[in-house]
Amino acid sequence: MAVLLPDRAGPLESVENFRLSVGGAESNVAGALTALGVPSAWISRVGDDGFGRRLLGDLTARGVDVSAVAVDPHRPTGVYLKEVGGTTGDHHDLGPGRSRLHYHRRGSAAAALSPELLDDPTAARLLAGAQLLHLSGITAALSDDCLALLRALLADRRPGRLVSFDLNWRPALWRDRDLSVLPPLLDAADLLLLGADEAEAAFGTGDPHALRRLFPSPATLVVKDEARLVTAIGLDGTAVAEPALTVEVVEATGAGDAFAAGYLAGTVRGLDQRRRLRLGHLSAACALTTHGDQAELPPDPVVRALLDASPAAWAATRVSADGIVSPAIITSPATGPATTTPTSPTHRSAPVAPGGGAPDPRPAATPALGAP
After folding, report:
1. What is the pTM of this model?
2. How many Cβ atoms sit within 10 Å of the Cβ of residue 312?
């Protein structure tokens, strides 16, 4: 969808100007995956309008393959407005660090997605060659045709293709929909991502082990407990939990999608469970330090250092818009961020200037951490 970002904090009636951007759960994940060095494609529908052209241009610039996106000549591109809390004192003000999304997507081009997509040659080629297929509960809520598409994709199991599913609970979208369709969709995935608060609202529990019993089929169930802890539980009940990083939050929207991208990138690369969770946490932490839905990770030596950090060094790490402070990171004027050492003091990672970067796990140059 197109996103209208306010030029100031406070209730919408106090905003004079909005900045045009793009957003949406699946497109956020696709863009973050490409930033992590994982080639991705996004399949959807947009309107034949300026918002649709902006969305496709933005994703193309981020390296996302949009060749299978259909342009609908009759339906508009979905749009939402972001309301950001501040300290205005107005009783409608959400408060610092909080935000609310106002959706305008009924009858949008994306709501017309259907199983007919599977007959499109370009989409079929991308789906056939995908190592990972990422789906979202948002799609199921948009229309009966969208729900039918998700069911068809989940029924089409292929060797070598992992299917991940993020609940992405949006209660406003389910107001006139049958919620009973959701559990079978979630249980049909290989990898299930749930927010504890979302699961509590949708299914009555946010407890990881209770959710594991509720959804017994996925090979891995990942439960995100907001800013505290993320737990991954396998089929045999083995659980790995990793605490979240301490973050100076600028704005919270997009962090869940960033976590999903980091965790999925770690899964594609074959990292162990703890490092997958840490890459998800780090990606989410960087998203929390910017006003947009997309954020960039620090250079790959810093990423590797944090993934390999001791539990104590990980717990002592602090992330802000100015950079990352961690006892796991060593910097030097000559070489920049380097690898960890057990006895290293706390250092602040230098922001990445455009033109930096290294091969794996971040092959491309990125702007400074926290840059817009």
Report:
1. 0.85
2. 10
Q: Where are the beta strands (DSSP E) in the chain?
A: 2-6, 18-22, 45-47, 70-72, 79-84, 99-104, 132-136, 162-166, 191-195, 220-225, 229-234, 239-243, 246-247, 318-320, 323-326, 347-348
| Residues that are catalytic | 257
Q: What is the pLDDT along the chain (372 residues), one digit of tens a residue?
A: 999 999 999 999 999 999 998 888 999 999 999 999 999 999 999 999 999 999 999 999 999 999 999 999 999 999 999 899 999 989 999 999 788 889 888 899 999 999 999 999 999 999 999 999 999 999 999 999 999 999 999 999 889 999 999 999 988 889 889 999 999 999 999 999 999 999 999 999 999 999 999 999 999 999 999 768 999 999 999 999 999 999 998 877 778 999 999 999 999 999 999 999 999 999 999 989 986 656 678 899 999 999 999 999 999 999 999 999 999 987 544 444 443 333 333 333 332 222 233 323 333 322 222 222
